[in-house]
Amino acid sequence: MTLSEGRIGAVYQVEQVMVKESVARRLEALGVNEKTKITVLNRKRRGASIIRVRGTRLALGKPITDGILVKEAAE
Q1: What gap in Å lies between CA 21 and CA 24, rounded to an integer?
Q2: Number of independent structural domains in the chain
Q3: How far is CA 28 from CA 11, 41, 46, 53, 63, in A?
Q4: What is the pLDDT of residues 16-62, one digit of tens each?
Q5: Domain limits at 58?
């Protein structure tokens, strides 16, 4: 499933990041790597998502969240 399909309040683990290389490098610098746990905090009407990664809140647009594959994380 993609991050954009995730439920608000759920915790997910990143399986793969499939976006442009420049965007992937920026996400990696922000801590969004494979095996990283992500919490979906909120979702806006136009598709943007607010997530928590390693204690930091990030807002990502729908094209980016569509390229991040996740799975439910075991707490």
Answers
A1: 5
A2: 1
A3: 19, 20, 24, 11, 17
A4: 999 999 999 999 999 999 999 999 999 998 889 999 999 999 999 99
A5: 3-72
